[in-house]
Amino acid sequence: MGIARRVYRSFGFSPIDTPALEYSEILLGKGSDETDKQMFRFQDQGERDVAMRFDLTIPFARFAAQHIGQLGTPFKRYHIGTVWRAEKPQKGRYREFIQCDFDTIGTDSNASDIETLFVIHDLMEAIGFTGFTIRVNHRQLLNGLLDRHSVVDKSVGILRALDKLAKIGADKVIAEMVDGVGIEKATAEQILEFAQLSGTPASILSDAESLIGDNERGQVGLTSLKELFETCRKVGIEDDRIALDVSIARGLDYYTGTIYETFLSDLPGIGSVCSGGRYDNLAGLFTKEKLPGVGASLGLDRLLAAMDELGLVKTASTPAQVLVAMFDGEKMAEYLALGRRLRSAGISAEVYPQARKIQKQFQYANRKGFRVVVIAGSREFEQQVWNVKDLELGTQTEVADADLAASLHGILSR
Amino acid sequence: MGIARRVYRSFGFSPIDTPALEYSEILLGKGSDETDKQMFRFQDQGERDVAMRFDLTIPFARFAAQHIGQLGTPFKRYHIGTVWRAEKPQKGRYREFIQCDFDTIGTDSNASDIETLFVIHDLMEAIGFTGFTIRVNHRQLLNGLLDRHSVVDKSVGILRALDKLAKIGADKVIAEMVDGVGIEKATAEQILEFAQLSGTPASILSDAESLIGDNERGQVGLTSLKELFETCRKVGIEDDRIALDVSIARGLDYYTGTIYETFLSDLPGIGSVCSGGRYDNLAGLFTKEKLPGVGASLGLDRLLAAMDELGLVKTASTPAQVLVAMFDGEKMAEYLALGRRLRSAGISAEVYPQARKIQKQFQYANRKGFRVVVIAGSREFEQQVWNVKDLELGTQTEVADADLAASLHGILSR
Question: Which residue ranges make up each domain of chain A?
Answer without folding.
Answer: 1-128+273-312, 132-264, 322-413
